[in-house]
Amino acid sequence: MEEVFGIKCAAIATYPMYKGVAKLVGMDVVECGPEPEDEVEALKKNYDKYDYFYLHYKKTDSRGEDGDFNAKVKEIEHFDSLVAPIRTLKFDVIAVTGDHSTPAVLKAHSWHPCPLLLWSRFERSDTCERFGETECAARGGLGRMPSKYLMPIMLACAQRLDKFGA
User: Fold this and answer.
1) Distance, CA of 124 to CA of 120 (rounded, Å)
2) Angle, nearest 10°, between helix axes 59-66 and 69-87?
3) What is the pLDDT confidence band of residue 166, given thresholds at 50, 70 and 90?
4) In which band, very low, low, confident or very high, does the pLDDT at 143 lie, cut at 50, 70 and 90?
5) Which of 10, 123, 126, 130 has the most crowded Cβ, counting Cβ within 10 A?
6) How far is residue 119's CA from residue 117's CA, in Å, rounded to a whole number?
7) 12, 30 contact by CB (below 8 A)
8) b or e along 37-58 (b: 16 or more beta carbons within 10 Å of the residue's beta carbon)?
9) How confident is the model at residue 99 (pLDDT cuts 50, 70, 90)?
10) From CA 97, how far away is CA 163, in angstroms rounded?
């Protein structure tokens, strides 16, 4: 990550696979306790040490794999309650998305596109009023794109590129 994008990166995750992948791409792994609040606390403690943070929230995926729709909704709402404390850190860019969809009705990963919330003072707003798969697909300003384009867009929104798209 530092070599390719020129940014010092950290990963905050509780699930071992995500820690391993983070290490493979050159991120430092910041250890934390098992709860989402522990992840946010680790983020706060390390905010000044890194340019970029990858924070992984596993519980929504797990509840989807369990097939427990109501529990998945509760986990989404729980994460939603953590966004305000994260926003107080004054990041240049915040992106919220998934690495795959896990509909509770399927109890498995699926082919459905992942919604993407991208906040930056340089990003245009769209007409979405809620963050979810249907709303983002129907009214999202970023449209549908391969995830490989997200990092360059985030860097552009953080004013870290001399020129975009040339």
Assistant:
1) 8
2) 170
3) low
4) confident
5) 10
6) 7
7) yes
8) eebbebbeeeeeebbbbbbbbe
9) confident
10) 25
3 state SS of 38? helix
CA distance 13 to 91: 19
The CATH H-level (homologous superfamily) assignment of domain 2-157 is Alkaline Phosphatase, subunit A (3.40.720.10)
Which pTM was predicted? Answer: 0.89
Q: Looking at the DSSP assignment, which residues form a beta bridge with residue 110?
A: 101
Which residue, among 81, 91, 85, 3, has the nearest Cα to 47 in the 3D structure? 91
Average pLDDT over residues 68-81: 93
Listing DSSP states for 107-143 in one string gives: TS-BSSPPP-EEEETTSPP-S--S-SHHHHHHH-TT-
* Per-domain residue ranges of the chain: 2-157
Instruction: Provide the residue count of the chain.
Output: 166
DSSP code at position 30: P
